[in-house]
Amino acid sequence: FDSETDAHRRARELSDDGDSPVKVQRAAPQDPDDVDGYLVAWPERRTRTPEGSPTEGLTFDTEANQYGALGEALVCTPAVNPPLLTHFAQVDADLAESEFDAEDLRVELDTDPDPVSVRSDRRWEPDCRAVVRTGPGRPVLTEYWCEVKAGDGSFERSQREAMRAKAREATVLKIRVELDDLPDRYTAWVRKVSPEGGEADESERYRVNASLDSF
After folding, report:
1. Could you state, in order of their start, the residue ranges of all structural domains in the chain?
2. Residue 39 to residues 59, 119, 120, 202, Cα–Cα distance (Å)
3. What is the pLDDT of residue 202?
4. 106 and 133 Cβ atoms separated by less than 8 Å
5. Burial readout 20-59 (b: 16 or more C-beta within 10 A, e: otherwise)
6. Which pLDDT score is estimated for 29?
7. Could you tell me the maximum CA-CA distance found in the chain, to the nearest angstrom?
8. What's the whole-number average pLDDT of the chain?
9. Alpha carbon separation from 1 to 10, 22, 132 (Å, rounded)
10. Residues 129, 113: contact at Cβ < 8 Å?
């Protein structure tokens, strides 16, 4: 890879499209090979017996669903004008020809949208549906159907097929949130899903860096 950023991007793409997440791990200082890092499997977190006691404090490993819920909370909060999706709507190339002031956009979330099914064994339950308008009660400009993953969480194969099916009629977003810099800031990558299932063009990938008080 030409850069560390390219290597991490490829790891995210492989995690999105595969059944198991992978991650770039730096090579050890004593590694005899002339390499900077390796692509390694990154298994899901496992729950363990907590350390400590109720009086002294209990320390738990974070469960995968808890870790994922943190990412969802950052993307889906608050219910009106959540920072990430509001910023994405402001820079979305598909809305570039619409006549509106970006500052006037209103993004309204439905955090319990209808599931998307393709046959009985291909089902996707979106984390949220974002409706974009130019103000309360105004006509809808577009909708985003979103799947949110935190860290290196992978997208399931059944999800991907249903997401591609939904992308034929609406804009479907894969959103990956990095939580390493919490509580000060977070970084998210947004990629539009292609109905054909191919990789999105570079112009259709977006990176957003935000502090928790950005908006």
Report:
1. 4-59, 64-211
2. 30, 34, 35, 22
3. 43
4. yes
5. ebbbbeeeeeeeeeeeebeeeebeeeeeeeeeeeeeeeee
6. 60
7. 64
8. 82
9. 9, 16, 37
10. yes
